Amino acid sequence: MKRTQLYLHEDIWKVLHIRSRQQRTSISDLVRQAVREKYGSSPVDRRQAMQALVGMWKDRRNLPDSTAYVRRLRKGKRLRRMAR
């Protein structure tokens, strides 16, 4: 988190002060929330970003076989070590 300083008009500060007391939070929290809502990513943007990741490595040939990897783990003593 980065620290910053804001200069607010008196009327805005009064509204934030009242709201912060009503919600039992700080003015800083209210400002962070408002900035996040205005300039943060929207749920639609987050969903599109997640969908862009799906299948990202599907065409990679240099990755080991995941089935063989899991079988090798299951055959080993790893589970018994974890149970201790």
Structural write-up:
With 84 residues, this protein is mainly alpha-helical. The chain has a domain at 8-43. The protein is built from five helices and no strands. Helix 1 (10-23) packs across helix 2 (27-39). The chain is elongated. The two termini are 40 Å apart. The mean pLDDT is 86.
List keywords for this structure.
84 residues; elongated; mainly alpha
- Can you count the beta strands? 0
The percent range for strand residues is: under 5%
Q: Provide the low-confidence segments as ranges.
A: none
Overall geometric form: elongated
Number of helices: 5
Major beta sheet summary: none
Average pLDDT score:
86
Structural class label: mainly alpha
Q: State the end-to-end CA separation.
A: 40 Å
Radius of gyration: 25 Å
SSE succession: HHHHH
Helix content: 55-70%
Brief write-up:
The protein is mostly helical and 84 residues long.
Write the layout of secondary structure elements.
Blueprint: H1 10-23, H2 27-39, H3 43-53, H4 66-75, H5 78-83
Helix pairs in contact: 1-2
